[in-house]
Amino acid sequence: MCTDHLGAWDEVLPLIEFTYNNSFHASIGMAPYEALYGRKCRILLCWYQDGEAMLVGPKLLEQTTEKVRMVRNRMQASQSRQKAYADHKRRPLEFAAGDHVLLRVTRTTNVGRVVCSRKLSPKFLGPYQILRRIGPVAYKIVLPPQLANLHPVFHVSRLRK
């Protein structure tokens, strides 16, 4: 986006901010502007800096609308690219109560440090039994006494059949 304007990113930044704040976000179920103010943003206001007096003509409005449309298309392309990448790496996993799973441990989480802090620490621990399903991607497992200081609820990405 900014490369199209050859370094004039400071002129386009308010348009990007406007488009981002008025685009639908699935995590909150609405646009951030709507979540903050309780209503949808209907008009483009304050496209100029403080202290400037500017008459908004049809040509300026058309240029601004075209830039907002271009920003919106670029953001949509970026979001769809990221979603395609995330969906490509995602595997649907579901477990039932009573299943036995292995718990993935890494050096970046505290789970691996509880067991062993050496280079050759194991990637998976277990098997442990699933007690119940907490949410769509969270499971509570039965941990042994030596891991009692850990929280027993884990994300599905940390578990293997």
**First-residue to last-residue Cα separation:** 44 Å
Total domain units: 2
Question: What percentage of residues falls in helices of 4 or more residues?
Answer: 25-40%
Rg measurement, Å: 25 Å
Stretches where pLDDT is under 50 for at least 5 consecutive residues are: 45-53
Number of extended strands: 5
Task: Describe the protein's architecture and organization.
This protein has 161 residues and is of the alpha+beta class. Helix content is 35%, strand content 15%. The chain contains four helices and five strands. A five-stranded antiparallel β-sheet has the order 4-3-2-1-5, with no helix packed on it. Helix 1 packs across helix 3. The radius of gyration is 25 Å and the shape is elongated. About 6% of the residues have low confidence.
Task: Describe the secondary structure blueprint for this structure.
Layout: H1 9-21, H2 32-37, H3 58-89, E1 100-104, H4 110-115, E2 124-133, E3 138-141, E4 153-155, E5 159-160
Antiparallel strand pairs: 1-2, 1-5, 2-3, 3-4
Write a brief caption for the model.
This protein has 161 residues and is of the alpha+beta class. It starts with 8 loop residues before the first helix and ends with a strand.
